[in-house]
Amino acid sequence: MVARVVLTRPAPRQVALKQALEAAGIEVLALPALEIVALDTVGRLPDPCEFDVAIFVSRTAWQTYWQALRAQAPCFVWPMTCQLASVGASTAQAIKQDLKQVALEGETFVLTPDADTTQDSESLWHQLRQALRPGARVLLVRGAAGRDWLAQTLQAQGFVTHIHETYRREPAQWSASAIDTLRQWQASGSLGTWLITSAQGLSAIQAQWRVHAMGAVRPEGAVVVHPRLQALVGLWLPPLSSVRVAQPEDQSLFIALTQQR
Hints:
- By secondary structure, the chain is an alpha/beta fold.
- The protein folds into two domains: about 5-35 and about 170-260, Rossmann fold, CATH 3.40.50.10090; about 40-170, Rossmann fold (3-Layer(aba) Sandwich), CATH 3.40.50.10090.
- It is about 40% helix and about 20% strand.
- The protein is built from nine helices and eleven strands.
- It has helices at about 15-25, 60-70, 90-100, 120-130, 150-155, 175-190, 200-210, 225-235, 250-260; strands at about 5, 25-30, 35-40, 55, 85, 110, 135-145, 160-170, 195, 220-225, 240-245.
- The strands form two sheets. It has a six-stranded mixed sheet with strand order 3-8-7-4-5-6.
- Strand 1 (about 5), helix 1 (about 15-25) and strand 2 (about 25-30) form a beta-alpha-beta unit.
- Helix 1 packs across helix 9 (about 250-260).
- The N and C termini lie close together (about 10 Å).
């Protein structure tokens, strides 16, 4: 039987990983659990020149903010006075790529958790508390929900923190063809390994499962991007299912998903 993988990240994040898995001979179903909806930022887009550091909690947070900023000021160049920081390495890489296109000299430095640590708010905080001066002005760019711990910690430590929300996540609707594929896979006895990257995404998957009466047959295993997701996903899967933790970059996910076979 051909190995199967279901990718549930928002659609724009699926393409490269899907291609790599298919090239490795794996049958892949791209099945986003959530979709990204950009929020209207007209008239309320904070200027990075007014902050000492700008923190981006995800690649989507950076891209939606940067696109809005460039739409407002097409020739805008990131100010040297505003340090960049990100919760994960993939976000840092996206920031560097975008800023390279506006001809900044040298490589942009983005403060981010060490590669061998968990890519989350707690790990970034360990870096930030050493880098920020007392009373620093902080711009925290995020979605409409989440990263409350980081915002609360920054504020509790006396940093002047401005939270800017650029997008929201909504449950995606699964197409009839995707449901047909899942039913065929169920009938063959294998739903494969699923990539699940957030608690909100898991909730959306469970809701779709109920709506479409998918029954008791569940995936054989999963790959998640944070240890906190292991238990949540494990409760949804059959007993003794394997739930592997991987870093959120495509290379790490590819290795974890292929090792789950």
